[in-house]
Amino acid sequence: MTDLNNFIANQLTHLGISPENTSWSVRLTIIVCIILVTYIATKIFRHLVMPTIQKITSRTKATWDDYLFNHKMLKSFSRMIPPILLFFQLPLAFSDSPVLLDFLQKACSIYIVITTLMLINCFLNSLYEISIEHEALRNRPLKGIYQMINLIAIGIGFILIISILINENAATILAGLGASAAVLMLIFKDSILGLVAGVQLSANDMLRPGDWITVSKYGADGYVIEVTLTTVKVQNFDKTITTIPPYILVSDSFQNWRGMRESGGRRIKRWINIDMNTIHFCKEDEIKYFVTKGWITEEEAQSQQPTVNLHIFRNYIQQYLAGHPRTNKDMMIMVRQLQPTAEGLPLEIYCFTDTTEWLEYEQIQGDIFNHILAILPQFGLRIFQRPAGNDLTTITTTK
Fold first, then answer.
1. Exposed, middle or buried: residue 214 (CB in 10 Å: 0-12, 13-18, 19+)?
2. Using CA atoms, how far apart are residues 126 and 65, in angstroms rounded to an integer?
3. Average pLDDT value for residue range 345-374
4. Core-most of 22, 115, 132, 274, by most CB within 10 Å?
5. Rounded to whole angstroms, how far apart are CA atoms 112 and 84?
6. Cβ-based neighbours of 298, under 8 Å, separated by 6 or more
7. Distance CA 64, CA 145 (A)
8. What is the pLDDT of residues 236-261, one digit of tens each?
């Protein structure tokens, strides 16, 4: 160090600087050289090394390196170059001022910790982008896990900065924080619960971004658009956003419609109430009419067993659903009677459509019930309906 100072002092003397001013001139020259070396090294990395690395990664067949060595990652790494170079070069200029040197090196150390945290954050974002592109990881709620790792890194960085400022070992500070673990757990309760819930949701494949879920207790009924460390965002069908803590989905129940979508069929389960006064044994002319329509066979018509019009209607609807072009033939198709009520005899239609799209599903369901309601009178049956004002007026007028 002394030889370097003497060499620079001799050169400055040859340039005409008086010996009385060589002390501060030497230091100023060294500081300028340090800044210049740091600047040049940073520019070389950004304008020479970065483009070279990106060209190499763009020529590879793998896509993961395009994310890990993208512009943001390399730029974050370049931010670490100045403080590292300054940390090791500062003793050249301030070896005779230990207090100032210690202060400047602490500032560089803090700067290194901050840029390292920025690099970790950028690295985790790149990992998240890779997981989105990966088929097996695309639908996993990994964002919350990445956020938790980032939060842990920030906590460690904060402890390191404190240890640098007070000249204490980071392990000693961590031991001191252990005594206040209860307070820390209270502060980071939601984050800890969110991390555990995120791991459970991911491990058990309970939730994926894009799933349609229903959580009636919290007014959520729509598609999951984001799963983070502390919230699950659900966009409802009215375009409002409902946020739910992830641990609620683990500790409480919710309905996930993914199974319905993956099955390829959506269930129709609806009933109509038949007026029980219209259920009767078929007369001979009715049986002939049903035969001509092809709703019963000649053998059934000649059977000695009495035939009930509701039975024929049920069989007709069963065959109608089985032959409908938009019902899923690989899933259950059933028409059944439910327990009679004061509002008639419920006749339930149970089947699945061949699509899970909502608009198509409603169209198919509407067409099926339009046909059922229109064909019902031909079997001598009537829908139960409470009398309205017009019905009562008509009765009064008739009398």
1. middle
2. 10
3. 94
4. 274
5. 7
6. 291
7. 19
8. 988 999 988 888 888 888 888 888 88
Strand-by-strand arrangement of the 212-215 sheet? 241-244, 232-236, 220-227, 212-215, 255-256
What are the backbone angles phi and psi of residue 275, rounded to the nearest 5°?
A: -65, 115
| SS3 category, 123 | helix
For domain 206-261, the CATH class is mainly beta
Backbone phi, psi, residue 391, to 5°:
-65, -45
CATH code 2.30.30.60 region(s) in the chain: 206-261
Could you tell me the pTM of the whole model? Answer: 0.57
Q: Which of 13-27, 214-228, 247-261, 342-356 has the highest mean pLDDT?
A: 342-356
Query: 41 Cβ partners below 8 Å, 6+ apart?
Result: 81, 85
**Residue extent(s) of CATH 3.30.70.100 domains in the chain:** 264-389
CATH class of domain segment(s) 264-389: alpha beta
- H/E run at residue 346: strand 345-352
Question: How far apart are alpha carbons 138 and 248 in whole angstroms?
Answer: 23
Largest CA-CA distance found in the chain, in angstroms, rounded: 134
- How far is 226 from 224, CA to CA, in rounded Å? 6
d(CA 307, CA 286): 10
* Backbone φ and ψ of 150, nearest 5°: -65, -40
Of 217, 359, 237, whose CA–CA distance to 225 is shortest?
237
Give all strands (DSSP E) within 64-182, no chain letters: none
